[in-house]
Amino acid sequence: MSLSASAETPIPPKPPKKIPKETRALGRIRIDEYDWMSNKDDPDLRDYIHAENTYAHEYFTSEAAAIHLLNREMKQVLRTKKVMAPLTTVVRGYEYYTKTSRLGMEILLDSAYLPDNCSVKKVLMSTAHHIFSFLTLEDGEELGSLHFRDLDREEPFEEVLEGVFNFVWGNDNKTVYYTKSTDVLRPYQVWAHQVGTPQAADILVFQEDDDSIFVDVGSTKDQRFVTINGNSLSSSEVRILDAGHDFSTGAKPELKTIAPRVEGVEYYVDHHDDHFYILTNDNPKKNFRVMRATQSNPRRESWVELMEAKDGEKIEDVDIFK
Q1: Has this prediction a pTM greater than 0.70?
Q2: How many other C-beta atoms can be found within 10 angstroms of the C-beta atom of residue 229?
Q3: CB-CB contact of 218 with 168 (8 Å)
């Protein structure tokens, strides 16, 4: 293969101006000749960026033939067989995954139609598997847009919530619980949203005013409870609410605290067959144990030990099956 450059080689832009600025720190002097570029409103900065972009466009245009030949050769050498992507999620007995075939499948989300600077952070289905929800984030952002699509409706339908950090579905096929953040990006609120209603009508379920606490929302594996987890660097506190709570009654869901916060004590909660299972380091050795408590009395004093890590071992996580 023979590659030749274009007869007209693009001319690089002139180097940007230099304005030395002296900074003293830790007894040393630093000279920055390009500190002026931190001012985004400087017309010289805009002109220089425009010149660089123009040069890049002209350069790659002049080398279009060479780029095309290189792409074709690399594709021939690096061609790989298309295979089904690994399983992505399992929800209430249904498996959701991606595949390369165009036959016999319904496309729920094609990321190619999202903006270039946008990515999908999380995907969940409603209880009855007819409302598809996905959380998108723009590059560099922590808060995203939560989208809903009703798969049973023939006419186009999409509902969007803004400023969402994380979310889970309730157990009534219409309620979503999501977290919102402070101005410094600390998730501190849990809101309840009814699909089909405006976000302005959403209900504040919980708010944490302690600046050291990071609030997250989850659900137990059996979908019986929504969990509100308040975590600091060295402690945790878990609240639960009935995932099937009916907001049409006008009442907020009742929040129950599994165990009050104790400095240095972490714990994580799941539920199965009228019992809570707790992974915690609440013991003098500070090694994690698996505890169990009845649904009627989940307080710390009723916890019964099921398993303790041996010396030199650590229980990283717990999962529950039938």
Answers
A1: no
A2: 17
A3: yes
Q: What is the 3-state secondary structure (H, E, C) of 6-72?
A: CCCCCCCCCCCCCCCEEEEECCEEEEECCHHHHCCCCHHHHHHHHHHHHHHHHHHHHCHHHHHHHHH
DSSP secondary-structure letter at 309? P
Pairing of strands 159-164, 167-169: unpaired
Q: Which of 156, 256, 157 is nearest to 205 (CA)?
A: 256
The pLDDT score that the predictor gives to residue 5 is 46
Other beta carbons less than 10 A from residue 258's beta carbon = 21
Q: Which two tokens stand for residue 322?
A: 């039938």
* Alpha-carbon gap, residue 72 to 51, rounded angstroms: 30
Decide if 229 contacts 166 (C-beta within 8 A): no
Tell me the three state secondary structure of residue 259.
coil
**Tens digits of per-residue pLDDT, 223-251?**
999 999 999 988 999 999 999 999 988 89
